[in-house]
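Practice problem: predict the structure.
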Amino acid sequence: MILANHGIISSSGASFDADALSFITAAAITDNTQKTAINTLVTDLKTYNIWTKMKALYPFVGGTASSHKWNLKDPRDLDAAYRLVFNGGGTHDSTGYIMNGTDSFANTYFNPSTVSGWKDNHNLSIYLKTTTPTGTGWHLGYGNTTTGDPLYGLAVRRNTTNELIYDSGNISQNGRLQTTITDAKGFWSANALASNDRRIFKNGTSFATSFSTVSGTPANDIMTIGAMNGTGGSLKYFLSGINSLTSFSDSLSPTELTNLNTAVTTYQTILLRNN
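Answer:
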């Protein structure tokens, strides 16, 4: 392959962004449509000036656990690069990572307590293709559930109560934004712009807002996908769903959240798995 002005030209003649190509190589992606989708996602995020804000981005492309484990932002096979380790009975196919709501979860090795300013400067996003998830837990999250240290997580329509919950601190610390929904399908973003600005966006549009000041600091633990990581790695509160993309990033402005939705929707559309 040879270098090009705007990326790298592969032996097939296709031009790829260098970061996209690193992921494609690590995940052993050979399908040209999937390559195009990844390259488009990376270049769109860079165009919108969102790429640098990403901490971890899991595009769940390739259809297998070995291709789904990679962090697009840093595709090294290291805990420090936040690559995933899958556990339990979850499955994988062309739609993404299928969480079963009983024992499946992915360990991200991402510890928000080590990220400066995380409490009031973060975003949690997930693209779901399931209308009614099963289970009473969390699609992603962590926190010391014994001592009550602040929790950070997102649950999209628990099946028994239809709850949509975004936690960014304990309830006693004004850290919960909660409402009810009837359809979990869509691209959901939980966003903290300030200590008194918590919002949930669906498909790039504001869905629920809280302006209560949140106190407390992040617990020292790691984020998991498909469940809540409790005290010392005690997994609990599982929730099912077809997960077609998950990301953790710095907080995004409303305009950036709209742009993120556009980039993710384009990506899913190329893969023929948009809702």
